Amino acid sequence: MMNKTNPPDLNDREDIRIDRYRPVENPFYIVKSKHYRAVKFTVLLIFVVYLLAMVTIFRHEITIENFRYLLKDIEFTRTYDADGYSRIAFDDAENADFQMYKGDFAVSDATGLDLYSVAGSKTFSADAAYANPVMLAGTKYLLLYGLSEFSYTVYNNFGQLYTESFPYPITNACLTDDGYYAIVTRTAEYRSAVYVYNSSFDRITSIYKDKYIIDVDMDSESKQVLLLSTYAEGGEFVSELASCSFDSTEEKAVYSARDCMPLEVCFRENGAYTVLFDSYALFYDENGVQVGSASYNGRVPITVAYGADRTVIAYNQNLVDSTALIAVYDGKGNVIHQMTEKGSVVKMISAEEGVYVLIGSRVIFADASSFWQTQSYAVERNAIDLVRINAKSFFVCYKNSATVFMKDEPDA
Q1: What is the pLDDT of residues 78-95, one digit of tens each?
Q2: Using one digit for the tens of pLDDT, what is the confidence trace for 40-69?
Q3: pLDDT (mean) for 28-51
């Protein structure tokens, strides 16, 4: 019979004792850990005390206006593919204005401002009621004012950012993509007053003129404001174009002419601009040098569009059967394309890909990349506006709805 013996206890052996290999806490790091823990709670306590002190001392400064100001630099642009969507419905809009702003479709009328996604859902609403609303949409802000009314409001797609009122009505305004803007009104002493603001809503320039300002435009790259005005002198109407920098009230005369009426002025690309009068147009380069002109040849301009360094003017060719001549000019006033269409021109858009024309019950697109070949899209009657979504799609707007059209689905 074999003798059974118990196995040896390995822990009894000095050379392989397990507790010899357990980690040993270093007293130095224990002290440091306690120090960092004390600092952490001290900083947290200081922050809480600071927060309570600020809320108590500056509680009167905590307003909804200041909160809105914090949101002014938040950028949130929706990118939707219009394919698959056909119509956005909204309440009947009287004297409405329509724009695309950061991927949303904006509708402003006498009841307020609404933003819709291309899918048709309402993303924002504001009670900004103007009888004759005018919307200006830039990359940064959306500016809304009432023509011949006394206030304006600036929005982004989160909410209202700033509003201001004047004792006299607003007659014009302009907005740049980076948030600079100008408001035209008047004062008790001057026929016209132009107030220029930066993107933080600070008034940086005030321009006063004893003349009637017909139009204004500004360019944030060249820091330049253009003022197109008229006045009477010696029994004649005088038209005047002047410019000034953002940070100065000193005007520089650019052009002056008698017996003509100014219509509008617009920056095109890179600081170049076009000036329209009642019988001709002038074209200027980025240095303010006149590089071309175009006569209307007795025709009456109906509407105009700017974009992609082009100027597009629609004329009444024949008043009897409402025939329109649509001429496309380059940056020097040369006609690069023209077409004659029957119907009343409602709206035109000049974009990089070509020219859109809402005329009668159809939209005509002239493709700049294919020698101005045209495509036609049948639309319902009583269309009141045309809004470009992107290079592939556009909205046709009606009194209570907007219909999406895809450019790859023409009627002819």
Answers
A1: 555 555 557 898 888 778
A2: 899 999 999 988 888 888 777 776 556 655
A3: 87
> How many angstroms separate the Cα of 103 from the Cα of each of 71, 240, 382, 389?
18, 38, 25, 8
19: its two tokens: 């507790």
**Model-level pTM?**
0.80
- Has residue 204 got a pLDDT over 80? yes
